[in-house]
Amino acid sequence: MSALIWCPFPDRSAAREVANALLDEKLIACANLLPDVESIFEWGGARESGKEIGVLFKTDAALLDRAAGRLAALHPYDTPAIMGWKCDAASTATQAWLGSLRERED
Predict the structure, then answer these.
(1) What is the DSSP letter of 87?
(2) Over the stretch 81-92, which tens digit does the pLDDT of each residue have?
């Protein structure tokens, strides 16, 4: 089964660094860096806004918790917004590609 993780970053450099680390550690198969995400949020009782880079990480569902935990450890924010979910549907080829991550763990 496939899984996705969504997480915003302060800039492209930080996003790329974390994506490469997760790829090196075989916890994800792909990271899509999305440009210029405008975030509007409540933090510390105040309304804030800022530009961020959104990243969508693709992984195998069996690695979802490990990938999200490692992402949290590597992320430059003190409290990063990390949300992951198992996909209800994916093509057979995509499932095979992401499932091959488990075979490369050893």
Answers:
(1) -
(2) 999 999 989 999
C-alpha closest to that of 63 among 91, 104, 92, 12: 104
Listed in sequence order, the residues at least 6 apart from 72 whose beta carbon sits closer than 8 Å to its beta carbon are: 80, 82
Q: Strand order in 46-60's β-sheet? A: 30-43, 46-60, 2-9, 83-86
State whether residue 81 is helix, strand or coil.
coil
Can you tell me which residue has the tokens 């490990």?
A: 66
Please state which of the four CATH numbers 3.40.50.20, 3.30.565.10, 3.30.70.120, 1.10.10.1800 is assigned to the domain occupying 2-103. Answer: 3.30.70.120
For residue 102, give the nearest of 21, 27, 4, 20 by alpha carbon: 27
pTM of the model: 0.92
